Amino acid sequence: MRVFFNLSFLLLVTIIIVSCGGSGKKPANTTGDEPKSMIPDTETYDPNRGTGKFTAENVTLGAIDAAMASAGEDISKTKCQSCHKLTDEKLVGPGWKGVTTRRTAHWIMNFITNPDPMIDKDPALQAQLELCLVRMPNQNLNDEDARKVVEFMRQNDNQ
Amino acid sequence: MYYQQQHTRQLYTIVFVITLLSITSCKPKNVANAISGDAAAKTYVAPGSHDEFYNFVSGGFSGQMSVYGLPSGRLLRVIPVFSVDPEKGWGYSEETKPMLNTSHGFVPWDDLHHTELSQTKGEINGKWVFANANNTPRLARVDLKTFRTAEIIELPNSGGNHSSPFGTENSEYIVAGTRFSVPADGAGGDVPIGSYKENFKGHISFVSVDQNSGEMNIAFQLKTPGVNFDLARCGRAKSHGWFFFSCYNTEQANTLLEVNASQKDKDFIMAVNWKKAEEYIKAGKGQKMDVRYAHNKYDEATHTATSEIETEVLVLDVAELKDICYFIPCPKSPHGCDVDPTGEYIVGSGKLAALIPVFSFDKLQKAIADKAFDGEFEGIPIIKYEAALHGEVKKPGLGPLHTEFDGKGNAYTSFFVSSEVVKWNIKDLTVIDRAPTFYSVGHLCIPGGNTTKPTPKYLIAYNKITKDRYLPTGPELAQSAQLYDISGDKMQLILDFPTIGEPHYAQAALASIIENNGQIKIFKIEDNKHPYVTKSEGDSKVVREGNKIHVYMSSIRSHFSPDNIEGVRMGDEVYFHVTNLEQDWDVPHGFAVKGADNAELLIMPGETQTLKWVPDRVGIFPMYCTDFCSALHQEMQGYVRVSPAGSNVPLTFSLGKNSTTPK
């Protein structure tokens, strides 16, 4: 009897909830988003290239173009150097010294122009974020600007 | 057994009670929640999803404009227009102070009643939204790429700019009709108040709008008999070239208007042939009058506003220059004066009347051609009422105020006294549906409801009285707006939402028209032409010019440069020119300094804004970023040292130079 009572009660409550919950159709614009894991999805990610439009094929390097590097330096003063030193000393983000030996030019250009998706996926950037705690902002550099900044980085590295 | 029976009885009782509960909980308890079950689904916009419409709502005595999403009723933005807004530094930063300048000097508050979205060929084009200042007469233009006030122009010869900012079908003109007739500006205004009939005149400004830049200029003013102008609508389609203004107080009372302006059986709707006015201007008619009014513009390149005082306006006297204006008699102090999407029907809403007269544009034209006049009012012909009348909606409700249209041949009129919205057919003038409002509705809005192409999915009622609609919050309650689904034959109330200030008129547009207009997400730092911009940390500096100290400061996640400043002395005026070097959407930085007697700055990416600070005592003053910008936001801070007047502490500034040996 006790069991019967409890079961009936449960059934009733269920009926009430269902009857008041309405039989209306689901709103059309639910997102269905699942909570995202903190662990980056690295399956499809190429850590040597990054995510973006630049590849080893479409970014080619020659001898350092001084005019281009100089333009890159000007851009970096406004958009980069508030957080990055030209030495290997960390300010907000890591210092630039040696970056072109650690990273390919096209990876750097992808990161500059497309930082948020790369921070979400790249294990090395995730590790860096734990040190710096500030996500590198998207400073809205266009393709040419990014290329010029890389040229300046190469010059800074005496390559 | 007994035990079992006892339990069975108990069980039945519980079942009965619960069944009762379930029935009553699903049923409406009273009229306040007499809404059908699918209302929640109709207004539900899932987290992360966008609304279908923008709703630009006047903020009334807040002086601001609020932007809501529909159908959710979510508040998206409050745009500061005529009142200072310390949250955004509006009217406090050196750059925005000129926007609130007038011929009376800096005016920190006004009363914003109506909004008007710019149009092309009678349809909303998503470029600008205009607003009126009701107290110190002004017009404002808000740029819908930035959602910021871009321009404010003052209106001379006016008192209470209520009949505004209604526009023509290509926004050629935005009109501004004076509520209070007053003597023209200048020394001649020193007259006895009792000489109203002799000396008080109405002035209606036609403000031209440059279709590319949006810049406003007062093209001309019409000088009219002294009455109160209330609301207005342009002719559209077939009636393009005409404008219609409701007028009350044709009794020309100057005291106790509540009684004295309600004497006559009929007041007027003034029909204005503005194309005719343009002809007179081309022919060199009209008189240039000496006046003074402020014209304020915000420059997005210098991030700075300028205010100029203009000194001349062209005035056309409509008593002398015939065929510009005609008066159509309209019962009982007309308030709303609304033109249907075809441009044929003009709906007058006498706020003390128990009927709604609908006038016909074709009949009006014929009446003018036939000179079907019933005398004159101060030199303006009065059209015979029946000659222009299409018909009357009989006994629609009490106290009609405003009418919007669905483009399907129906009109929706608000009734303040009987607190309801009434849907009626324009052609046969029959009432189709009525819905109660909670309580005492003022204006109505249908998206595009004043255009040639309404999007009649929703109707919003902006109510004057809230009472028990929300949890009590002391003597004052947020004004309530109510959303009705009007897609079917019957209006269906689906949402209440609270508003800021006191909404009067509002307009709404499909979100796609606004969000695809070239929305600005950042200001490009390379395009920043502010005279005190700091484009890189290397350029940051502190410069003394006499007792003025200019701080060229940059901000980026998460530090200011410089963040240590010494050598400020008592008697100095410090100008913090803060440039936000960020170039990413939605990353403003704030700036506040202790003891500042004005407000904070809120600086958008790529922008420069200036806070003036006059230290009042010697000591160390902290400054910090007020807008949470990164995980190290709480580290975004600095110090200013203030020394006595005449101190020899040198002016220095730095970033990142920690001193271990205190001086």
Described by strand count, sense and barrel closure, the largest sheet of chain B is:
10 strands, mixed
Unreliably modeled segments of chain B: 13-33
Number of strands of chain B: 45
What is the topology, as strand order, of the major beta sheet of chain B?
6-7-8-9-17-18-13-12-11-10
Q: How much β-strand is present in the residues of chain B?
A: 35-45%
Shape of chain B: globular
**Quantity of strands of chain A, as a count:** 0
Distance between the termini of chain B: 95 Å
**Low-confidence spans of chain A:** 1-5, 7-35
- Count the DSSP helices of chain B: 8
Structural class of chain B: mainly beta
- What is the distance, rounded to the nearest whole angstrom, between the alpha carbons of the first and last residues of chain A? 86 Å
Mean pLDDT of chain B: 94
H/E element order of chain A: HHHHHHH
Kindly report the greatest chain-chain contact and the residue count on each side. A-B, 34 and 44 residues
What portion of residues of chain A is helical? 40-55%
Secondary structure: helix percent of chain B? under 10%
Biggest β-sheet of chain A, characterized?
none
C-alpha-based Rg of chain B, rounded = 29 Å
Which class do the helix and strand fractions of chain A yield?
A: mainly alpha
Radius of gyration of chain A: 26 Å
Break the fold down into its secondary structure elements and pairings.
The complex is a heterodimer of chains A (159) and B (663).
Chain A: H1 2-21, H2 66-79, H3 99-102, H4 105-113, H5 115-121, H6 123-132, H7 143-156
Helix pairs in contact in A: 2-7, 4-5, 4-7, 5-6
Chain B: H1 2-26, H2 39-43, E1 53-58, E2 65-70, E3 74-79, E4 101-102, E5 105-106, E6 112-120, E7 123-133, E8 138-143, E9 148-154, E10 159-163, E11 173-180, H3 196-199, E12 202-209, E13 216-224, E14 228-234, E15 242-248, H4 257-260, E16 266-273, H5 274-282, E17 287-299, E18 304-317, E19 325-331, E20 334-339, E21 345-350, E22 355-360, H6 361-369, E23 373-377, E24 380-383, H7 385-388, E25 389-394, E26 400-405, E27 410-415, E28 420-425, E29 431-436, E30 441-445, E31 458-463, E32 480-485, E33 492-498, E34 506-510, H8 511-515, E35 541-545, E36 548-556, E37 559-561, E38 564-569, E39 573-580, E40 589-593, E41 601-603, E42 608-613, E43 619-624, E44 637-643, E45 652-654
Parallel strand pairs in B: 13-18, 36-39, 38-44
Antiparallel strand pairs in B: 1-2, 1-34, 2-3, 4-5, 6-7, 7-8, 8-9, 9-17, 10-11, 11-12, 12-13, 14-15, 15-16, 16-19, 17-18, 20-21, 21-22, 22-25, 23-24, 26-27, 27-28, 28-29, 30-31, 31-32, 32-33, 35-36, 36-37, 38-45, 39-42, 40-41, 40-43, 43-44
